[in-house]
Write a structure and sequence with these properties.
The protein is α+β, with helices and mostly antiparallel strands and about 130 residues long. Helix content is about 20%, strand content about 40%. Strand 5 and strand 6 form a beta hairpin.
Length: about 130
């Protein structure tokens, strides 16, 4: 196999660093292991961010997400770890990760974690007629 899971996140220069714009990425194939039972947990990750100087390179993101497949982690811990790693890699103005875990024993879990750069203000929403 040519590619392997990796914890290395790559970035590239934001082509419009003077503009606030939102990048939305959906990752429907996230898996990790339950730290109590060793059974697989499946989730769809919804990533939204407003980049500053750097954007996350998508192939490296895919390999990074793949790297959790054989790791045991509680939903809350892994969601916050992913957000922290992504923030460290690209230092966005704003980032939100919503991890929507599949049902396990009749229980659905959704974890939402956010980062807001100090001093950054969200633009006022525009209401169209």
């Amino acid at each position: 196999m040519m590619t392997r899971p990796s914890k290395q996140l790559e970035t590239f220069a934001n082509p419009q660093p003077d503009r606030d714009y939102t990048i939305r990425i959906r990752l429907p194939e996230f898996t990790c292991l339950c730290p109590k039972t060793g059974q697989p947990d499946f989730a769809t990750l919804h990533l939204e961010y407003i980049p500053d100087q750097q954007c996350i390179e998508l192939k490296s993101l895919k390999l990074y997400i793949w790297s959790f497949r054989d790791e045991g982690a509680f939903h809350e811990a892994v969601s916050n770890r992913i957000l922290s790693d992504l923030v460290a890699a690209c230092q966005p103005r704003y980032m939100r990760l919503r991890a929507e875990f599949n049902v396990r024993g009749g229980v659905y879990t959704e974890v939402v974690a956010e980062h807001r750069r100090d001093g950054w203000q969200s633009p006022a929403p525009v209401t169209l007629p």
